[in-house]
Structure formats: structure tokens, C-alpha cells
Amino acid sequence: MVLGGGGFIGHHLVNKLKEEGYWVRAADIKKPAYEDSKADDFCLGDLSEQSFCLNVIDRDFDEVYQLAADMGGAGYIFTGENDASVMYNSASINLNVLEFCRIKNNNNIFYSSSACVYNEFNQLDPNNPNCEESSAYPANPDSEYGWEKLFSERIYLAYNRNYNMTNKVARYHNIFGPLGAWNNGKEKSPAALCRKVAQAPNGGSIEIWGDGEQTRSFLYVDECLEGTTKLLRSNLSGPYNIGSEEMISINDFVDLISDIAGKTIKKIHIDGPLGVRGRNSNNKLIKDELGWAPSQSLKIGIEKTYKWIEEKVMKGEIDIK
Fold first, then answer.
1. CA 222/CA 244 separation, integer angstroms
2. Average pLDDT, the chain
3. Mean pLDDT calculated for residue range 268-274
4. 202 found inside a domain
5. Based on the domain organization, do 39 and 156 belong to the same domain?
6. Among residues 139, 149, 141, which one has the least CA distance to residue 171?
7. Is 207 exposed, middle or buried (0-12, 13-18, 19+ CB in 10 A)?
């Protein structure tokens, strides 16, 4: 079962599980935006509503992946305008999922947390952020989204202790790839920058929030799913980082995308929501304990993502809200 199966990562996960031969139920408030779901059963509704969630979790599944959340990119998370709904909706989903899974003897849930749980004070230096798993405490996330994720991590692990469950928790770091939001207000920086470069003429310019010296790492969706399924099928609980250690500044990221596009692009820096100054996945713990690490460079994933978004732009398509 994939909860959040209409979203970007969830849709890719459904595809992966179908390729592995599983019967898959997906559930989400919306269906996938860019292609039909391959789920054997797609339940359309709001998992924050108890009656719907109870109907979805009607049996004991071999694997449960809980990816459903009220979320988006920096333009959605860091403006403050969506804080209440982000916290209420996502917390309600997780409380419902956990309790109904317990009732139906689903003891093995994967929960997708986020790098947004990490202490803002440890991410002020763009060249030396600290995102080691233990550094999440003392807690000081940079957004209400991060606070909700941290709370939900704790309740999944509390159910492990109190109800003998084996839930798994991973902190995703900027997952990207084709078939994700690219122009609807919830897109994240890789898709947004690919779109801007695709729309700009050679020699043109694009706008970037901030000075562009803020740093991030980005993980291609296929590698995210490899780490996700490997963790769920292990005897480990986490939390673990699932991300890339290939850190890059936003300015350099634009240059990388521009090179892939074969364009010369001028960067215009403007005010906008930024999040932390620097962030990079620390993979030592998951590599040592689970034996997982990403294997491909950022460029390979961005080439695939840019091509997909460029085709959308060339066709004059409009992203789905």
C-alpha cells in the first residue's frame, strides 16, 4: 500500500512495486498528474478524514509506505501562509494512518520524513552544514513543516516501543525527477530552475531567489526509492538520511542546467523565500548500518528531468494545480 500514491514520489514508488510483481493499493487526495497510475486499486480521498482512512486500511498489507503530506517547495512551505494547514493536515494523516494500521495489524510502515527537521542553527554556513541524524536535537527546524515532520517521526517510533511495531523512518533530502510538479506553485527548486532555463532564450536571464550562494544536495527519485524499499525490508528503524552528498550552490546548479540545455543564462537575484543557508545529506549512518548510498551523479538525473520539463515547455503545456 502506497499512501500518497498520487504524488511525485508515491507515483514512482507504485511503478517500482508493480515492476517487482506486487499487488498495489494507492490512496491520495488526487490522482497522478502526468500519467495514469499503475496501482491495482486507487482510493481517491482525504487521508486526514478518519472514515476514508479506515476504508483504505481495511486489511494487513505486506508493506505500507506513508508518503502522504500537505507539502510543496519553498514558495509553499516558507511563506508562512500555509503553516496551519500543513501542520494540521499532515499530523492528522499520520495519526489516522498509525492508529488504523495498528488496528489492522499492519506493523511495518515506512514513514517519509524530511531534511527540514534539522536544526536551523546547524545550517547557517552554506559550505559546512551539519545534517547528521543526531543533530536534529536540540530541535529548531526552520519551518512549521519541519516541526510537524519531527513530531510525526517521534510518534511512529513511539508506536514501535508501545505496540511492538517495526516502523521505519527516513529523512528525504530534496528528491527530484520527471513526473513532478514543475509550474504550479508547489514545485521544488530543481523543477523550477529547469523550467526557467527551458523557457529562457539562449543569452537570456532567469530570476533566482536570494544571492544563489545557498547550498543543497539533490537525489534522483529512482535512487530514493532504492533506499526506501531497502530500509523498509530491513530490521532497522532509523531515522536515516536518504539523500545525496553532492552539495551544490544554487548558482552552480543553474550553470549545470544551462550547460545541459546548451544555453548561456544570466542570473538575476531577487528576494524570495529561501529556507536554510546550507543543507547536505550526511550518509555515514545509513551507509554503515544499511549498506546504501546513491550511485549516480546529479548531472545524470538533471539531464533526464530537464528533458522532461523542456518537452512540457515546448508543447506549451500548463502544470496541473
1. 12
2. 95
3. 88
4. yes
5. yes
6. 149
7. exposed
Torsion of CA 119, 122, 123, 124, to 10 degrees: 120
Residues 169 and 236: their CA atoms lie apart, in Å, by: 9
298: amino acid identity, one letter: L
Q: How far is the C-alpha of 236 from the C-alpha of 148, rounded, in Å?
A: 23
234 and 197, same domain (yes or no): no
Per-residue pLDDT tens over the stretch 177-193 = 999 999 988 888 999 99
Which CATH number goes with the domain that contains 121?
3.40.50.720
What's at 138, amino acid-wise?
P
Catalytic site positions: 145
Domain that holds residue 260: 178-216+247-287+296-314
Banded model confidence at residue 321, pLDDT cuts 50, 70, 90: low
Within a domain: 320: no
d(CA 87, CA 100): 20
Identify whether 13 is part of a domain.
yes
Distance CA 277, CA 270 (A): 16
The tally of domains found in the chain comes to: 2
User: What's residue 177's pLDDT?
Assistant: 98
